[in-house]
Amino acid sequence: MSSPSTVQEVADSQELTSDGKRCLSQLDRPAKFGRAAAETDDVPATIEVALLRLKTNRLIEYNQPVYIAPMAKPDLQAPDNTLFSLMDKVEGFLADDSQVMLVLGDSGAGKSTFNRHLEHALWQDYEPGGRIPLFINLPALDRPDREMVVEHLKSANFSEEQIWDLKQHRQLLLICDGYDESQLTSNLHTTNLFNRPGQWNAKLLITCRTQYLSPDYRDRFAPEATGQYHRTAYNLFQEAVIAPFSKKQIELYVEQFVLLKPRTWVKKGYMDTLTTIPNLMDLVRNPFLLTLALESLPSVVKNNTTLSNLRVTRVELYDRFVDHWLEVNKRRLQKQTLRDDKHVALEDLLADKFVHNGIIFQKELAEAIFQEQEGRPIVEYSNRRDKSSWKARFFDSEPERSLLRDASLLSRTGNQYRFIHRSVLEYFFSCYVWDASREDDEFVPHVYSEATGVSLPVTDHPLSKRSLVPEQSVIQFLAERVQMRPIFKQYLLALVELSKLDPQATIAAANAITILVRAGRHFNGADLRGIRIPGANLTGGQFDSTQLQDSDLAGVIFTKAWIRQADFTGARMDETRFGELPNLQEASEVLSCAFSPDGKSFATGLDNSNISIYDTTTWTRIRVFQGHKMGTGSLAYSTTGLQLLSGGYCGTVRLWDGETDVTDRILKGHSQKVRAVAFSPSGMQFASAGADKSVRLWDTQTGTVTFVIIHLGDVTGIAYSPDGNNITSCCLDGQVQVFDTRTGLLVLSSGTSDVGYYCLAYSPNGQLIVSGDIFGYLQLWEATTMMPRNNWRGHSRSVRNVEFSPNGQWIVSGGDDNTVKVWDGYAATLVSVFTGHTSSITSVAFSPDCSLIASGSKDRTVRLWEMNSAGFGFDVDGAFDSKRSVAYSPDGRLLISGSRAGVIQQHDAESGEIGLVIRRHEFEANSVAYSSDSRQISLGDSGGHVTLWSAHTGAHENILLGHTMDVSAVVFSPCGQWIASSDDRTVRLWDARSGTSIQVFSSDRVSPVRSLSFSSSGAEIAFGGDFGRVQVWDVTTGKFKMDKMDTIGDTFRRCFVRYLPRSLQVVSCYGSEGAHLWDEEGRHSRIILQHGRITIQHFAFSSCGQWIASVEGDTVHLWRSPLDERPQDWEYVLAVEGFTGVIGEIVWRPNKLEFATADVGGSTRVWRIVERFDKVVVQLVWGTGGSGLVASGSLLNDAIGLNTFNRNLLEQPVVDDRYLSSSDDEGLRRFQIGDYLEKLQRF
């Protein structure tokens, strides 16, 4: 992997000759060499002579000053431990029968660099008669989808006779670069008829940016099966994703970079700077950005003595690099001998700020490329043909334009011009949209918005010219500009506000709010009444309690947006998209579901034994099948769709007529519940599996059992191979076994393990089997050998159901953690997470066309998720990273969260803006805490470490070693003197300054500890452990003050402890026993919070002591203490829902009525309590991380154009009868706490 040529090399390549003519750069040479060779050929060249000429030219043209061999991974979100050499992967592709290999990568990942290096290596090894490597720049071709090879060879001066000869007799490797830049959507292998009789014999290696992909992107690249053009041959397709640079690769790159020319910095200086500036190492893992950074670092750090305080973003690197590039080229031009007219032009440019004019030139060129040719990056210019076109403004021979063009970030091949990288084009276009240098330009026409007090240009502004929603990279550049320039944020907000009054601001406002949402701007509680933003992309946006009455929201994308309690009254909502369809509400738990093969019907099996049949065009229930005596735990349609098979917990199997509610057969044989059923692909046989440890194979026509296959444990899942020759079963005894359906004999077995399996499925091509187990892991197996492949933790609890998509691209899984997850079917890596169910997922199913995923749950609903909302084209890395802990700094200004992936994020507590990011990928971040002075962060991780970091710089300061297991809790004492930490066996007390271990409490005195809390003075510390154990240790005396274990109730739940604010009394909670208040001596306790329908798992006191927030699963319950100074009852106020998973921790913000939550769904959210007219309202302040659509309480009165599906989706009730609202019976909501309140009031 390497960058494009560095600044100096490119500048050197543009030196002029003694007569003032510009020397050919490397990129200028191909066409000229080709013409020169052609002109000297007097006779037609033989094929090998022509190929030798091509080889020679290509080897001469190759110029890679720095090259680092890239690593790759199987998929976009694959972890780093799946990396492999990309070159090795390509060599394997060249050696096997595959026909197409797709190489993906982010912008700047080094795709083109690798392609050129690959071509160079293959030409070096080329021997006559061998496979011919052709590097094809797709954007340079007029019709790459039809005559790709012919057009390319003609440009290389091959004759028609030579081309025909090559087509008939030779093999090609087509290295197709820039699929995304050519804006193609067709399948090049199919449209060019490759590898068909009489056509080109070719392998294709195609590179494409990941941002260009759509959900069905593999269909654009995979070849069609021979003789079956309607069927995709995925077995002839391979894929790889170029991985970001590792630290070692960065070091190797820097080492080569410093040797290119004399520099004032050495390798150590670059590396020290890269590692010291916060988060810069993560940014420069992109090779192109690394190049920019290395060129720009000297100017970035100039006059900055404290590098740890610097913050560098991608757009800042481009800013610095562009300035540096133009400065270097300005000096080059000043040294050259120029013609008189160019010399005068240069003097004028120098007098008028050369760099500034260079930026304007490139910015306007980028705008013209987007405006005139829809962003197609290559501009062909002929002075004779185009002198009257828009192109002449940039490419004619006028001296000033010629100088600016030569100094710009442009490359030239013959008469074709392009920016040196696609991202440079997008960067300059974003600069055109809003150039920071124009913020104070007094000559820009302005319009004043009274609502915001901001003066802003609107007439003919680029934000008004076109929708930028499809240009995700441009949106990202502008979003970063928002974070850098507050005035830009105000300008965009003013545009949104202006759209209320001025219809001409509609497009600009839609672009503006799209940029703001991408930049993380929250609109919770905002007054957006009457805004006009049709077509805006508000994916993941936060609009809690937002006023959107009478707004134009036509075509707006609200996928996974937070629109709880938003008011859409009178809003125009034609074609508004939300990423899912309305839930199907059932009368009891949904145990199973299935689509018919034609997708027109959908069936659900219920715990009350019924089967509901839905028409999928309207999603209305059209029939109900009744017959089973107990729950219907499994369903399967026949391949014709005419029959439906069901398995009942009563032990019977029923075969139904798919068009009526008539039972064709009732089949008995299982002695216990039937857990799974399946039809063979031919429809002549079906199978059932049960808790009686048997699999039964039945003849469809006669209803007789042909084989009974006995297992050692409960059989939980079965699946037929696509050819129907095998049936595979999984059991709770830890075995996956393959049997021959014609003989009933065992064919293959995975062997026994300690893991019980719940479910399995075959890939459509029959090559893979995926299984899900009781611990939340998914396993891919080679179907022909049962050799294990990928194994990964997919869910935090058991995987209940798993399916391959019909096209084989995805795997969907559902688990007891209430989430539905989509995985790449090849690499087994996360694509998206769907949240919203409030109970276990029991079943999942793809629609036949792969457009929908259905998930059934014990919460009595089926949710229907649109696959086009599954996160394609967006960075999902970390978006659903389970959050384990959250903590406020004592001054309340900062908030940190720790995740399962070992990432600590520090937020501004008011705005949610992310500042510091600390990555510890090798360990899970179980617990985080701030020191009493807010200067240090402590982290307890899964490796048994307690690590201390600077809260200001993120610098590592100390590591406390001694724990041998996961550190489950860590806390600083309020006095700042101590740190306490715990694992399953010990509690340790450390000196906060030196890190010295002061005291250790081992397992003979301490049950497994899950919770720690210091008293307000720091003199005592309370432990909460398993089995209801509560212990208090006096730090000053070194003795236990209290050691209690309550054996009443649910004793196996974890105990959570907290001190009352400004008190020596401990409150503990565990199981369903509510919260217990202990006296100061620790002798007696009594229940202070209890609700017959609420389990208090843990809780937190507000700093004022008047509020308690308790957690039950994915819900927060709020309790309030009246202020009267007399014994009162605590009052249950309300429940806060909408979380993306079980809540891991809850904390109150010091001196504010705000609390923060972290949940396993990957979100960190901050909530504010607002009291209005004797009514308590909880509003979302801000949130980050994974989310599903949350629309509870939204108002849709008189919404215009909202289709029935979307209206039903937004209005559907939350099905959850576990909780009581604030209007429930008063007798259940109030609890006497007596003298506890008196003590609280005294404090």
Automatic annotation (TrEMBL):
InterPro entries: 5peptide_repeat, NACHT_NTPase, P-loop_NTPase, Sigma_54_int_dom_ATP-bd_1, WD40/YVTN_repeat-like_dom_sf, WD40_PAC1, WD40_repeat_CS, WD40_repeat_dom_sf. Keywords: Repeat, WD repeat. SUPFAM superfamilies: Pentapeptide repeat-like, WD40 repeat-like. Residues 100-257 form the NACHT domain. Gene3D superfamilies: E3 ubiquitin-protein ligase SopA, P-loop containing nucleotide triphosphate hydrolases, YVTN repeat-like/Quinoprotein amine dehydrogenase. It holds the Pfam family WD40. SMART domains: WD40. The keyword Oxidoreductase does not apply. WD repeats lie at residues 625-657, 667-708, 708-749, 792-824, 834-869, 960-1000, 1002-1043. This is WD repeats region domain-containing protein. It comes from Linnemannia hyalina. The gene is WDR31_9.
